[in-house]
Amino acid sequence: MLLRALSVFVLATPAFADCPTAVDLPTGVKATLSDGSTEEYRTVRTGLVELIARYDDGYDARNLLGQGVYVIELADLEDGQIVPESRITSSYPMSADAMPLPQPGARWSVAVGMRNADGFFKEKQTHSWGEITQVSYQGCTYDMIPGEFLYTGDGYSYREDIHYLPELGVGLLVSYADGDDPPEIFTYDAFEIMADQR
Questions:
Q1: How far is it, in rounded angstroms, from Cα 124 to Cα 172?
Q2: How many C-beta neighbours within 10 Å does residue 59 have?
Q3: Rounded to whole angstroms, how far apart are CA atoms 128 and 125?
Q4: Most buried of the four, 91, 120, 133, 145, by CB within 10 Å?
């Protein structure tokens, strides 16, 4: 995702030289999930990462993530193009590069203006971060900060569990639950550096 100062952490270096880090985000980092789905992360500009998700059922989506974690825009893709009526945008009270970086024990509550094909609505978001730990993906070991994101609006609520990898500069969606429904779980198997396609 982004090239950022991570001096607040004493970070372990990923185990091998070919393990992706944030310096690889301009050309792209690809994550493969256990079900065969993939996620491609690329830096758009400072503080903003594009995520292209390609799911095993043929559904594709594009997200724009502030600081690699906060959803600024999401939309379905068809033949690589955004489906206009599917686009949802979030208006935060600051620019993407001014959003708070995840830190152990931090909490951020924010009112967000949302817009979709039906119009404008408001949403409350609460982002909470736990203590730093480590995770490994096929020989690549990263520091990880677990996060819990709660979203509430008029007649709805949902929760996301995020694993933020400071060395990569992105947050991985590891579970999603709509209201009281059982959570959907996402398991990441491996990361790789993508070739420069520009």
A1: 21
A2: 12
A3: 10
A4: 145
pLDDT over 50 (residue 11): no
DSSP 8-state secondary structure symbol assigned to residue 69? T
Instruction: Sort strands 133-137 and 140-153 into parallel, antiparallel or unpaired.
Output: antiparallel
CB 89 within 8 A of CB 71: no
Helix (H) or strand (E) holding 31: strand 29-33
Identity of the amino acid at 123: E
Q: Is 66's pLDDT higher than 60?
A: yes
DSSP, collapsed to helix, strand or coil, labels residue 71 as: strand
What's the token pair of residue 78?
């068809």
CB 1 within 8 A of CB 169: yes
Calculated CA dihedral for residues 169, 52, 134, 191, nearest 10 degrees: -110
3-state secondary structure 119-178: EEEEEEEEEEECCCEEEEECCEEEEEEEEEEEEEECCEEEEEEEEEECCCCEEEEEEEEE
pLDDT reading at 129 higher than 50: yes
Structure tokens at 133: 């730990």
- Identify the residue whose tokens are 């090239």: 3
Helices (H) and strands (E) in the chain, counts: 0, 15
**SS3 label, residue 9:** coil
Q: Could you tell me the two tokens for 61?
A: 């989506």
Q: What is the pLDDT of residue 12?
A: 43
